Each structure stands twice: as C-alpha cells, then as structure tokens.
C-alpha cells in the first residue's frame, strides 16, 4: 500500500503531462531523423557518391577531388559475343572466344548494373545479330526496356543479318540502331573486310533505314576512318540516309585485338595520322549530325563489358579484364575498368538517347 501511493501519484503526474510530452516528441522526431541522415550521408558511400555527383558539376578542382569516388555505370557497352560474320582488318573486338552467357545470367548482370545506376545499355559484339539469329539479343533488349525500364537501349551491328521480323518482334523496345558503315564503295568494303558478296551495301543500308522509320527506331551510323576510306567523300550518302548521329572514329590500335603477337588482326596498315583524320572531318564539316572521335577521345571513355561481364580496362593500350560483375558485384569490378568519367562527359557521351525524347518525325 505504501508503494502504491507514490506510484499512483507518479502515474497521475505523467498522465497530466502526456499530451505536452507527446507533442514535444512529435516535433523532435523529424529533427532527429534529419540529423541521423545528415551524419549517415556524410560518413557513408552513398554520401560520398552524392557529393561526387555535385563535384562533377562544379569546378575543375572539385572534379579532380571526386576522382576517387565510386564510378557510376551510367552508359555501358555490353559485347556479349565476339563471334562475327565479317573479318574487318582493324576489328577492335575479335573472335577470341565463342562464349555467350546463358540468358538468365546476362539478365542478372543487367539488373545489377541497373541497380548501380545504369541508364543506357548498348549491345555490341562481334555481330550481335549472329547468336540465335538475333533472338537472344531481342530478349535482352525487351528485358532492358520492359523489366528494367532503361531510358535508352541501343545496338551496334554491321547490319548484314537483320531481318524485318526482328523489328516486328522487338523494334518497340529499341531506342537506337547504329549500323557500321565505313564506305559506300564496294571495293573499299572488300579491302576493309566488310565485303557483302551479293548484298549491295548501300541498298541494305537504305532498307535498314526504312525499317527504322517504320518501326520507330532512331537510326545511327558509325564509321571507322582508316587508310582505305580516308579520301572518300561521304557527304551525299550520309545526308540521304539522314541518321540522328554519325559517329566518326579514328582507327585505333589495341594490343591483343588488332596488334601484337597474340592478336587475330594486324591493323597497322589501316592507321591514319591525326592530320589525315582532321582533313576527313573538315571535308564533312557541313554534315550536322557528325560526332567525331579521335583516338584520344575514344581511349578510356567507354565502359566496356566483355562476354563474361568483365569490365575491359584499355588504359595500357590493351584490354585488361576485371573480375566479372556476376562474381564480385558492379562496385568492385568497376574499380578496375580504367573508365575516365570526365572524358566520357567531355566527348558528349551523355546525349539525348531515349527515342521518346528525340521527338523524331518518323
Ligand atoms: S563487323 Fe565489327 S565485330 Fe565484325 S569484324 Fe568488323 S569490326 Fe569486328
């Protein structure tokens, strides 16, 4: 009884102040949450990444300070196959293996990339339409657009194996189709290793262009300027095809791919000087969709994944693979990618890459 009296008194006292205490607690909760997230952000990876992003927008000094921040795989080039039906003499990604990941494993890796911040995926090879006659590629394209909701899904292909039925099945999920075209003269294509035999290269390009329009896919052209096409004037052909972008690369040597002892190609005879490349660009200056890419700009400004989903580091003039993202995760693997995010931004790597935003007059 002697115990109940003070307890009862304390209970009554608490009851009297409960309303005031709960309103005080209510106003403290947001403040405490804010303080906790502020400290957490400052001390964790997420905070470092957010700070890194801000720094990218800031001064050059600030950009340098962000160099050791985790990289974001905003735009990824996935070379899921090395097999190709052509034999271009300067090929940068040769048929050293015939490996292709099982579809579900490839999807798992793509999901991991999306979770790590990927916004654009580009499927390349080898020739991406070769494996399972383009069905494997189509399933990945559909998965990336429909399941992952990626803003941009694109393909680079030599164009020789694409059929209209592919557009019927998968065209709606594709933002951009880039076709490699190094020359409009069949003889030059034969010299390069892109001879199409009975197929007329220009006619094939026009057919692909039409399908892109019919199925609402943005059409792009990629050209590698080399010893055999450096004198060519492509202005009229390019203007007639009217691509959204014409990417013009300077032929590049990569040890183990197109130069060196264990390479499958010897690309030295294809090389041109920086001046010759500049002359080519000057001749085509009036083509407004031209996007030039010199060796310097190309180097290290692409995030490249090989057929095992390993990032390929080109900083030493060859492709040194990281561990697979499927084994160690994106954040760990990307540290070995050699990716230069500043150069990626400087070369205009981020552009309007979703067909919804391109506002094309199909
Ligand atoms: S089409 Fe592309 S992947 Fe095939 S050999 Fe030529 S450069 Fe290499």
- Runs with pLDDT <50, length 5+? 1-66
CATH topology: TIM Barrel
Distinct small-molecule ligands in the complex: iron/sulfur cluster
The fraction of residues assigned to DSSP E strands is 5-15%
**What form results from the Cα inertia axes?**
globular
Order of helices and strands: HHHEHEHEHEHHEHEHEHEEEHHHH
Descriptive notes:
With 362 residues, the chain is of the alpha/beta class. It has a single domain, classed as TIM Barrel, CATH 3.20.20.70. Helix content is 42%, strand content 14%. The chain has helices spanning 4-43, 45-57, 60-65, 103-115, 135-147, 164-170, 186-192, 201-214, 235-241, 274-283, 295-298, 325-328, 330-334, 341-346, 355-358; strands at 75-79, 120-124, 152-157, 176-180, 218-225, 245-250, 290-293, 303-305, 310-313, 320-324. Helix 1 (4-43) packs across helix 2 and helix 4 (103-115) packs parallel to helix 5 (135-147). It is globular. The model is unreliable at 1-66 (pLDDT under 50). Iron/sulfur cluster (SF4) binds next to loops.
How is the topology of this model organized?
Blueprint: H1 4-43, H2 45-57, H3 60-65, E1 75-79, H4 103-115, E2 120-124, H5 135-147, E3 152-157, H6 164-170, E4 176-180, H7 186-192, H8 201-214, E5 218-225, H9 235-241, E6 245-250, H10 274-283, E7 290-293, H11 295-298, E8 303-305, E9 310-313, E10 320-324, H12 325-328, H13 330-334, H14 341-346, H15 355-358
Parallel strand pairs: 1-2, 1-8, 2-3, 3-4, 4-5, 5-6, 6-7
Antiparallel strand pairs: 9-10
Iron/sulfur cluster binds at residues 84, 86-88, 91, 93, 125-127, 158, 180.
């Amino acid at each position: 009884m002697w115990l109940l009296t003070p307890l009862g008194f304390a209970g009554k006292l608490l009851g009297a102040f409960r309303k005031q205490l709960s309103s005080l607690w209510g106003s403290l909760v947001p403040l405490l949450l804010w303080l906790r997230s502020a400290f957490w952000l400052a001390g964790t990876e997420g905070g470092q990444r957010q700070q890194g992003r801000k720094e990218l927008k800031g001064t050059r000094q600030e950009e340098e300070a962000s160099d050791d921040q985790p990289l974001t795989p905003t735009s990824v080039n996935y070379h899921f196959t090395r097999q190709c039906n052509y034999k271009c003499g300067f090929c940068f990604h040769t048929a050293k293996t015939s490996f292709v990941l099982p579809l579900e494993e490839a999807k798992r890796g793509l999901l991991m990339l999306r979770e790590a911040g990927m916004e654009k995926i580009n499927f390349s090879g080898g020739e991406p339409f070769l494996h399972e006659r383009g069905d494997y590629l189509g399933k990945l394209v559909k998965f990336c657009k429909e399941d992952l909701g990626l803003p941009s899904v694109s393909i680079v292909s030599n164009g020789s194996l694409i059929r209209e039925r592919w557009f019927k099945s998968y065209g709606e999920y594709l933002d951009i189709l880039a076709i490699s075209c190094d020359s409009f003269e069949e003889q030059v294509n034969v010299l390069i290793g892109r001879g199409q035999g009975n197929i007329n290269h220009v006619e094939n390009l026009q057919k692909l262009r039409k399908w892109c329009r019919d199925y609402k896919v943005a059409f792009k052209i990629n050209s590698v300027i080399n010893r055999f096409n450096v004198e060519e004037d492509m202005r009229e052909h390019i203007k007639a095809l009217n691509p959204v972008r014409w990417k013009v690369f300077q032929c590049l040597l990569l040890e183990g791919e197109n130069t060196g002892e264990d390479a499958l190609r010897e690309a030295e005879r294809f090389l041109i000087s920086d001046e010759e490349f500049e002359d080519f660009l000057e001749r085509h200056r009036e083509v407004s969709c031209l996007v030039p890419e010199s060796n310097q700009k190309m180097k290290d400004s692409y995030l490249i994944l090989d057929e095992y989903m390993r990032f390929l580091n080109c900083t030493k003039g060859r492709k040194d693979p990281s561990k697979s993202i499927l084994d160690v995760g994106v954040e760990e693997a990307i540290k070995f990618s050699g990716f230069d995010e500043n150069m990626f931004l400087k070369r205009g790597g981020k552009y309007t890459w979703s067909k919804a935003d391109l506002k094309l007059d199909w």
